[in-house]
Design a protein that fits this description.
The complex is a heterodimer. Chain A is of the alpha+beta class. Chain A has 5 helices and 7 strands; from the N terminus they run H-H-E-E-E-E-E-H-H-E-H-E. Chain A is rod-shaped and about 150 Å long. By secondary structure, chain B is of the alpha+beta class. In chain B, the strands form 2 sheets. Chain B has a two-stranded antiparallel sheet with strand order 1-2. Classes of the chains: A alpha+beta, B alpha+beta. The interface between A and B is large, with 39 and 35 residues.
């Protein structure tokens, strides 16, 4: 079972699963770098007035204030103001433009399930009918017994004797009855078996791409700009 | 949206931290070195140039962020 689950991963397009996000991130970084370069060239640089093929940095003017010591040796109450020209490029935090982290998580779950259903149904039914019919019963012994009883009652009253004789002269009330016996036997059994197996397997890929450093050229330019920023006193 | 950045102090080379919104509003920023009393402020004449640069930079950053967010999902 385990080998079967492991074989499920062999057909995975890992190149596409891992490579596609990485390539997309790389493309995004390239797009950012391209846009950044275009931004630097069009916004932070301008064509030189002397040579159109030459680009010169766009400069912006700042006012720098600093305290000075006057001729008496004390700190002047009014700070000295100077103009300083700074390349626009140094104001922009260019190095923050990059995809810092890329994480690709891929989870796969293989579920193996087997279900066995066994269903036994046993149904047996039998029925039987038995009939019995009975006609009127006339037994001489019984009659004899009744007569005997009548003879004993004759001594009591003539009226009673008459009615007793009438009863005896009537044939006995006969009941024809039929008996049907219905019998049935049912037996039912239901059996079910279920077997289920589940297997999980996960596969996780984590990729991290760090922040792209600035190109050496831009770093050098920024370094030169930073070291050559000299304040100039304002002309009054 | 305000962009935080820094530039080196012309006097002591320590960083001067600033925010784009405050810089464009004319506010001055002091050097992070406690022994350096330099402060700088953008002149009003170059305000438009800097504002345009920050706007374009913000657009690029927004595009990069949306690209990264798309691939994360």
């Amino acid at each position: 079972m385990n080998s079967n689950i492991a074989s499920q991963f062999s057909g995975l397009p890992m190149k596409a699963l891992i490579g596609a996000p990485l390539k997309a991130a790389t493309d995004a970084n390239a797009m950012i770098a391209n846009a950044q370069t275009q931004f630097l060239l069009t916004t932070c640089f301008e064509k030189s007035t002397d040579d159109e093929n030459q680009l010169v940095p766009t400069m912006v003017n700042f006012t720098l204030s600093r305290s000075v010591i006057d001729k008496d040796g004390a700190i002047s109450s009014t700070p000295l103001k100077m103009n300083i020209s700074i390349p626009l490029m140094t104001l922009i935090p260019i190095n923050s433009l990059a995809i810092e982290k890329l994480k690709v998580s891929f989870n796969m779950e293989v579920k193996s399930s087997r279900e066995i259903k066994k269903k036994d149904t046993f149904d047996q039914q039998s029925s039987s009918v038995s009939k019995a019919s009975h006609g009127p019963e006339r037994s001489s012994g019984r009659r004899t017994r009744v007569q005997g009883r009548v003879q004993r009652r004759r001594q009591r009253s003539a009226h009673e004797q008459l009615s007793a004789n009438e009863q005896l002269s009537k044939p006995e009330q006969a009941h024809d009855f039929e008996t049907e016996l219905h019998g049935s036997l049912a037996k039912s059994s239901l059996g079910e078996q279920q077997q289920s197996n589940a297997a999980h397997a996960s596969y996780e890929v984590t990729l991290e791409a760090g922040q792209l450093p600035l190109p050496n050229g831009i770093t050098t330019i920024l370094d030169i700009f930073s070291k050559n920023m000299m304040p100039l006193p304002s002309k009054k | 949206m305000s962009i935080k950045s820094k530039l080196d102090c012309p006097e002591c080379n320590m960083p001067i931290y600033f925010e784009s919104n405050l810089l464009l509003s004319g506010q001055s920023f002091s050097c992070s070195n406690p022994h350096c009393d330099v402060s700088i402020a953008l002149t009003a004449t170059d305000k438009d140039v800097v504002s345009d640069a920050f706007t374009k930079f913000e657009q690029i950053r927004h595009t990069a962020t949306s690209q990264a967010g798309h691939h994360d999902t």
